[in-house]
């Protein structure tokens, strides 16, 4: 079991201790823009529910995004009447900007938000935050698309929601079921590390946060919810959908190029059984074997197709060399990313060069097998050639895996030096903490500068 606290790790997840008197365990943020009509009944209903059912101290924070009606006055009166209610005023619109600002300044260990219309049944709030309080999960989301969810809404919103999540699954390989439900929570220690990586300041904010969290290996808990559509919603569906698709493209490009330092977030919280030292079981061997076998099977099919195609125009030795060269380059790239988890462009040329050395060994094995076959039979059948090549490739595959694991992509986790701190302070804007600095954490992150303006309408 891992018990060290070396740089690059954070303290293990633990059940949150009982908080001192006056310190809230949960901070529920309600972002609003021109909600003078709905704000008061929403806050009073939420406060009554928490006061009656929630076993910990709590706070309700109204995040006013530059409202131009009487919303600030309504929020001020609520804060004056109810001790657990506070207000936070921003001069720029954007749901993501509001959440970043309030979550960054909050002292509560569990942070949540919900839409002002309270479309989600409040009975799901305790199940939402319980896994975060217990230390089981890092983030939690309400899902309207789970099998046991009960949802009432029109076909247009249903289609848009499901289509958007299909896009996320197809383009960003997202595995969570509902990105847009306005009912989410996150542990504060996770937010301190994750929020600086999230660039969007509008409606795409929480989708981007979830994608990055999932790619970083954080645990996301999903809660089926009862949800009733708000017919008076002021969200501009077409514009929001367009901006979300732009966000999907931006995040997908960043993930593909490796420009996001997600490796610094990989499993940073808690004891992961995959990190335990178990005698006679090398770290990550099972996962790497499975990934290598999948890549190897696809590479072998690719190689045989190429060999059959080249064999029409040239001799067996030349066809074998060309097919093996092309498949070796693709195999090295796939194993680099999928089997051994190496992201970004750093070291890619060196890895390909080492992969070509491994290719040379495989070429020697397969070419030698073909030479032996041709020496034994002057005109071997094509099926016999393929059988010999498959056997030779199996032997080369075993050797390739051993060389990849020990030489091309060795596990340098224990040998890596701590990441040096930046030479200049990281600049934060709307997400800056109350005192202008983040609380001390051991991970070093690259600065992310969110957009200064957000043209999306915010409710």
What does this structure look like?
The protein is of the alpha/beta class and 459 residues long. Helices cover 46% and strands 10% of the residues. The protein contains 12 helices and 9 strands. The protein has helices at residues 39-53, 71-81, 95-105, 125-134, 155-172, 188-194, 205-215, 237-257, 285-311, 316-339, 348-376, 382-408; strands at 26-32, 58-65, 85-90, 110-114, 139-143, 150-152, 183-187, 220-224, 226-228. The strands form 2 sheets. It has a 7-stranded mixed beta sheet, with helices on both faces. Strands 6-9 form a two-stranded parallel ribbon. Strand 1 (26-32), helix 1 and strand 2 (58-65) form a beta-alpha-beta unit. The radius of gyration is 27 Å and the shape is elongated. Mean pLDDT is 79; it is low at 1-10 and 413-459.
**Helix content percent band:** 40-55%
Radius of gyration: 27 Å
> How many helices does DSSP assign?
12
The end-to-end span amounts to: 47 Å
Compute the number of strand runs: 9
Largest sheet: 7 strands, mixed
**Low-pLDDT segments, ≥5 res:** 1-10, 413-459
Which structural class do you get from the secondary structure elements?
A: alpha/beta
- List SSEs in N-to-C order: EHEHEHEHEEHEHHEEHHHHH
For this structure, the quaternary state is single chain
| Bulk shape | elongated
Spatially, the strands of the biggest sheet line up as: 3-2-1-4-7-5-8
Strand content: 5-15%
Q: Give the overall average pLDDT.
A: 79
């Amino acid at each position: 079991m891992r018990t060290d606290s070396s740089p690059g790790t954070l303290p293990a997840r633990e059940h949150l201790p009982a908080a001192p008197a006056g310190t809230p365990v949960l901070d529920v943020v309600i972002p609003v823009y021109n909600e003078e009509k709905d704000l008061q009944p929403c806050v009073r209903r939420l406060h009554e529910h928490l006061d009656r059912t929630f076993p910990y101290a709590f706070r309700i924070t109204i995040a006013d995004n530059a409202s131009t009606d009487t919303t600030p006055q309504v929020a001020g009166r609520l804060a004056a009447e109810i001790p657990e209610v506070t207000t936070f005023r921003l001069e720029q619109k954007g749901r993501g900007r509001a959440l970043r600002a309030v979550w960054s300044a909050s002292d509560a260990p569990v942070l949540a938000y919900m839409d002002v219309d309270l479309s989600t049944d409040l009975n799901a709030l305790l199940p939402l935050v319980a896994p975060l309080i217990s230390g089981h999960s890092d983030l939690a989301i309400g899902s309207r698309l789970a099998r046991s969810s009960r949802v009432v809404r029109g076909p247009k919103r249903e289609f848009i929601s499901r289509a958007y999540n299909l896009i996320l699954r197809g383009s960003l390989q997202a595995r969570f079921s509902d990105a847009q439900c306005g009912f989410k929570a996150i542990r504060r220690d996770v937010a301190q590390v994750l929020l600086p990586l999230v660039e969007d300041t509008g409606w795409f904010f929480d989708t981007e946060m979830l994608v990055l969290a999932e790619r970083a290996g954080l645990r996301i808990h999903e809660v089926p919810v009862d949800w009733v559509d708000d017919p008076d919603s002021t969200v501009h569906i077409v514009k929001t959908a367009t901006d979300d698709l732009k966000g999907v493209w931006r995040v997908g490009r960043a993930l593909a190029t490796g420009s996001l330092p997600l490796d610094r977030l990989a499993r940073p919280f808690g004891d992961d059984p995959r990190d335990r030292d178990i005698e006679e079981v090398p770290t990550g061997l099972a996962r790497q074997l499975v990934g290598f076998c999948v890549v190897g099977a696809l590479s072998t099919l690719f190689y045989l197709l190429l060999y059959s195609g080249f064999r029409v125009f040239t001799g067996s030795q030349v066809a074998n060399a060309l097919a093996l060269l092309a498949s070796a380059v693709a195999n090295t790239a796939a194993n680099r990313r999928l089997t051994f988890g190496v992201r970004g462009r750093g070291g890619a040329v060196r890895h390909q060069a080492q992969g070509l050395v491994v290719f040379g060994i495989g070429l020697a094995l397969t070419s030698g097998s073909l030479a032996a076959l041709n020496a034994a039979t002057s005109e071997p059948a094509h099926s016999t050639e393929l059988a010999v090549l498959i056997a030779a490739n199996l032997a080369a595959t075993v050797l390739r895996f051993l060389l990849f694991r020990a030489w091309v992509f060795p596990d340098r986790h224990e040998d890596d030096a701590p990441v040096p701190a930046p030479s200049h302070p990281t600049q934060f804007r709307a997400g800056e903490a109350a005192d202008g600095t983040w609380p001390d954490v051991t991970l070093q992150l690259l600065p992310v500068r969110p957009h200064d303006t957000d043209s999306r309408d915010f409710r």
